[in-house]
Amino acid sequence: MQHAFRRDDPALLDATGLRIAVVQARFNFDITERLAASCVQQLVELGGEAPRVIEVPGALEIPQALEWLARAGAYDALVALGCVIRGETYHFELVCEVSAAGVQQVALQHGLAVANGILTVENREQAVQRLDKGAECARVAVEMARLARALRAHRAD
After folding, report:
1. Cβ-based burial of 99 (10 A; exposed 0-12, middle 13-18, buried ≥19)
2. pLDDT for residue 4 is more than 60
3. pLDDT for the residue 1
4. pLDDT per residue over 18-44, tens digit each?
5. In sequence order, what are the beta bridge partners of 81?
6. Residue 112: left (phi > 0), alpha (psi -120 to 50), or beta?
7. Fewer CB within 10 Å: N-end or C-end of the chain?
8. 91 has catalytic annotation
9. Which domains does the chain have, with CATH numbers?
10. What is the predicted pLDDT for the residue at 108?
11. What is the pTM of this model?
């Protein structure tokens, strides 16, 4: 079996020349600010430029901002960062489901790499334990953007 991209391929995580934007929710800002900082740091460590970071009020607004960025056609990948902590009402489930569906919809409608880093946790402790999700999303965005470029180039051959 021939693999186009293998996990040991150094080009897989080369952010050089990629245009990436990050949409960060302000709700639970102490968490999302740290997610964004780790995402930006990881992108720079992977050879990329510091990405454009756009703040929105909360997780429900993330898909709309992603949509606007995707329509602009200026980015190879997008990253969604937010933090939804369970409360005592059904609102938690609603926000989690709607934001995740919106992020996925943007990715599929635009054929664009979109890394979903919206944490959905029971409490603040769980959120703090998942702060590495920002860096992970940076790696996902780079890998998927590289894969998209490779597949487009292969199709053009």
Report:
1. buried
2. no
3. 43
4. 999 999 999 999 999 999 999 999 999
5. 24, 117
6. beta
7. N
8. yes
9. 19-156 (3.40.50.960)
10. 97
11. 0.91
